[in-house]
Write a structure and sequence with these properties.
Helix 5 runs parallel beside helix 7, helix 10 crosses helix 11 and helix 11 packs antiparallel against helix 12. The strands form 4 sheets. Strands 7, 8, 9, 10, 11, 14, 15, 16, 17, 18 and 19 form an 11-stranded antiparallel sheet that branches. Strands 1, 2, 3, 4 and 5 form a 5-stranded parallel sheet that branches. The longest helix has 27 residues. 35% of the residues lie in helices and 28% in strands. With 389 residues, it is α+β, with helices and mostly antiparallel strands. It has 2 domains: 191 residues, Rossmann fold; 174 residues, Tumour Suppressor Smad4, CATH 2.60.200.40. Strand 10 and strand 11 form a beta hairpin. The chain is built from 12 helices and 20 strands. The protein is globular and about 65 Å long.
Amino acid sequence: MTEVFASLLSKICSHTPLAAGRPLVWIIIANPKAGGFTIRSRWKNHHAKLRDCAQSAEKNPLRVNCAPSQTARRGGGLGVEMGIIATMAAGDAKEITDALVKEASEAAAALSATDLKNQTTAESLQSNKRPFYLIITAGGDGTSLEVMTSLYHAPAEIRRDFAILRLPLGTGNDGADAFDLDKALALIIEESEVRQQRAPKLIPASGRGPFLAFNILSVGVDAFVTLMTNKMKGKLPGDSYKLWVDIAALFYDRIYKVGLMDVRSVDEQGMKAKAFREKLLLLAVGESGRRSYGSRKLILPDERNVCAIKQMPLIRKLALKGLLPSGAHVDKPESILWNARRVEFNSQYPLLAQMDGETVLLEEEDFPAAIELTEPVIPVLKLLANTSL
């Protein structure tokens, strides 16, 4: 199955207009246990869309100077000649990306040495010789989190030679570049550009971390849902995330005490944005507004990138829970939304935090803690304005 996937995807890579004029190197990091592969109905749908996208890509000129990465070729297993490596355990995606960054660094160093010897300008090196590396993730939010964490820590001069495309092959896919496979693939079939994306970063006072997310970083009830979903993954049938949302609405504040939280924040200019003291069920900070988690639950449905939800009686929790998928919770008095670059918070009691599906428990020594947006560091793809989608 993954070999068929890689065969069609490598054909698309061979016809992409991305980074035209430069050598293109690609790698496909796939989680074969992701729902997009293992759930038969989803795979059937993905295969059909992938086949159609490959046919569309063939309308573009065939690239001469493009190939799978050496990291993929050294990875072993089926499909490596098409540039795919399958992950087998947590941490594999990060190790693969680390190896690709090393490959890119060595290639850049070798070209720099050659150009210095031949007295070639750095501008010529960058525009004509230095390879451009495309990482395609085919898995869930955990796979993309590992890859992007590796890229975050890569040297800036090497990171400029990269772009990441996150395909929606997982269960939730909130970290993917589009919820639909064909729309995600359009980013390398049509004309696109590389833009640098920021990352929410959790900074505890204890010095632990920092902990990174690339979609939404939050503390409170949804981190509890994430923790229990991860613990029971593979043990419960169906959508266990939805099940734990229902359970959390009933029992979260009986398991974790919901105390007063002091919240202070600043905007992009460093000016005070909002400050308050409330009992909060949730505090969520996104890389930007218009973001979802938990499989399309629109916690940040407009341009505002921070959402806090106050503690409330059970009957209100049940009502508000049903509004999250559509984003209608923003009009309710329990919701506080605003824009901020940095949010500092103190809590009476320990708090669970979640970073794109990974959790950590914040305890007394971790407060005050902060969630702040990094500088733009992650190279993602955006369609140019004159494209069809």
